[in-house]
Amino acid sequence: MRAFESIHFAAAAPGTRLIVTGAVHGNETCGTVAIRRVLDDIAKGRLEIATGEATFVPVTNPLAYERQQRQGDRNLNRKLVPTDDPREFEDHVANWLCPLLARHEVLLDLHSFHTAGAPFVMVGPEDNSGALEPFGHAAREEALAVRLGVRRIVDGWLGTYASGVERRRARHASEGDVALDLDADYGVGTTEYMRRVGGWGFTLECGQHEDPRAPEVAYRAILNTLAHLRLIDAPEPLPATDVEGLRLFQVIDRDHADDRFSHDWASFDTVRAGELIGIRHDGTALLAESDGRIVFPNPAAEPGQEWFYLARPHERFAA
Question: Can you tell me the mean pLDDT for 294-301?
Fold first, then answer.
């Protein structure tokens, strides 16, 4: 069994408890590079944790990281929950990671994505007392989101995923395919789990996997987070003034290995109502139902899994 590693710093002065994670998906290494750079800054005295606590996890999923692929046995960032009956490697990761997350207040989870596109941050819902994702820290997330160094903010993840599960359930109702993910909680990853245990945080998508700028995006975001939370003695980062806010509203699955996109989409490409997005294996044209932006297009998605998301502008982060 591979060992899990976290590096913890606790200042004498009280303050916020922050955790920063990298390589939740093993082929998304920009966070690993950035975290190790911050750790080197601390080791060499260029950076000092002055208040609170900071925990850094350079490689959250060591099996996937070793294999240089998204997952080991399964996607760690889906249905993240401890289990008394661990069967897959990611179950063991969850049994270690979930209690670690619960000991902190704020999470910065560093990711990258498959196709080309600009970096963006995913935030939680607005404050609500609903059954799916009740939350009470929206103002804190909003204040830091605009200071992470990116100018695109996306919300609506879990609600959109739950709606997608209902579509998946209806589409495959007669098949009895237990391999399909038909539980809305399958959309729960690191940040969703963090909110469920009383904290708050972000998934920061730092750019395309191989983009050499992505580790710098991740590094600057860590420093800005440390400064905003007053964990280091540094000026308050200035908020971005030209933020684009988007809300996810639909997820479309890939149903067959021969489903294909109409062309090479990049995250946040504009799509118009009626525009051809892809073609199903049986020749059926997949058309956009309304205007929006395509998010996370994945031409290598497994059948029965998310193929792409759609988002539309939202005024939540309007200046």
Answer: 93
| pLDDT surpasses 90 at 171 | no
pTM for this entry: 0.93
Q: Which tens digits make up the pLDDT trace of 180-224?
A: 466 667 789 999 999 999 999 999 999 999 999 999 999 999 999
Residues 6+ apart with CB under 8 A from 67: 26
User: Residue 135 and residue 35: Cα distance in Å, rounded?
Assistant: 28
Three-class secondary structure of residue 215 per DSSP: helix
Q: What is the mean pLDDT of the chain?
A: 93
CATH no. for residue 86?
A: 3.40.630.10
- Residue 222: enclosing H or E segment and its boundaries? helix 214-228
Number of H helices, E strands in the chain: 7, 14
Distances (CA, A) of 143 to 5, 30, 117, 237, 291: 30, 24, 24, 11, 29
207 domain residue, yes or no: yes
Cross-strand pairs, 20 = 56, 108
* 260 and 298 together in one domain: yes
Q: Encode pLDDT of 243-258 as tens digits.
A: 999 999 999 999 999 9
Structural domain of residue 122, as residue ranges? 7-244
Q: What is the pLDDT of residue 162?
A: 87
Contacts of 249 (CB under 8 A, 6+ apart): 156, 160, 292, 310, 311, 312
Cα separation of the two ends of the chain: 49
Angstrom distance (rounded) from CA 244 to CA 254 = 28
Q: Are 259 and 279 spatial neighbours (Cβ–Cβ below 8 Å)?
A: yes
